[in-house]
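Page 42, continued from yesterday. The earlier attempt failed because a stray header line got pasted into the input along with the sequence. Redoing it now with the clean sequence only.
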Amino acid sequence: MGRRVAIVGTGQTYHKSSRKDVNGVELIQEATSRALEDAGLTRKDIDAVVIGNMDHFEGINYVDTWSVDGNGGLYKPVMKVTTGGTTGTTVAIAGYYHVASGLFDTVLAIGWEKNSESDTTAAIITCSDPYWERPTFGGAVAGLAGTACEYMYKYGITERDAALVAVRDRKNALKNPYAHLRKQITVEEVLVSPMLAYPIKLLDICPRTDGACAVIFASEDKAKKIADKPAWIHQVSSRHNYTFLTDIERSGRMPTLYEACMEVYKNAGIRDPLHELDVVEMYTPSSFAGLVWIDALGVCDEGEAVRLVSDGVTEMSGEFPINPSGGVISTNCIGATGLIRVAEAAMQVSGKAGEHQIEGAKLALATGFGGCFWSDVLLIGSPRPN
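This time it went through. Structure tokens are written below.
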């Protein structure tokens, strides 16, 4: 596993549908400055930078070089990471390994996106096979809709069941000043919102957000000096298994997320995640995914996630709180989305989450999802790992 590593600072922009007041460099600088301020550090204290976004969305390559004025990487090693929707969590894992390896003591990880200046569907469709997949799976919504249909058919899940996830996360977002969509919705409003691709409706799906997030990783010796309560990285895992979208069984547990979770639990000695984890920041781009992927966390039998949601188990006041930040359904600046999950998990175990703090949170799980059915999982805690 290498050296012990902790998160000692986090920073986010105030996320919106459009940030016309700043360019990409300035957006990145906002998050970076807030992370440095949170840790009580300056750019001189950072040894290396890891940065990522969906560069083909904005049509601008080499963010690692042109954003130096914003990321603080002048004359320092800067590494770019892009793995689709998982970019944010992969940036976090890369930052962790940079420190765990012994190469650096402090690493700044940055994720960002200006979706207002991109064409998401046109970009995503290029990853689909032009003959076999694009007619039905062009873009993210159609793929998520296919998974939702299979899950509904197999387990008898209804559109109303899924709507509960959107309602929960949008309610939580009201307590998060950084969230993009901060307006309460009802189940009925979700059900009558415009249909995008059956059964996914407008209020079932995540927004397109402009925003950035930055997280600072530090070695054990540095972390103890920087932070009163570091957020320690206990375990990380990544899995991906894509060939053709139609080759993957999607009606049950997502295998990549399930396998990544099982590896993390095994290595951390977790036997009962439902009762041992205090909070989960889960990448849920749609309300239906918020059900399908709870199954993959290994906290219930397949098809039983709806019971946990409807019984209030996943509410902030419940036994297994999910997305107290409001999650992806409330904020989705794609290159930063996964890193926000990591930042929010770190904030929870460090007691810095403000109004959406889960009392007594000591162990948090952050997940990421992206292209190639890629899943990332990070286990973060306030106790130092053994």
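Notes: The radius of gyration is 19 Å.
Reminder to self: strip header lines before submitting.
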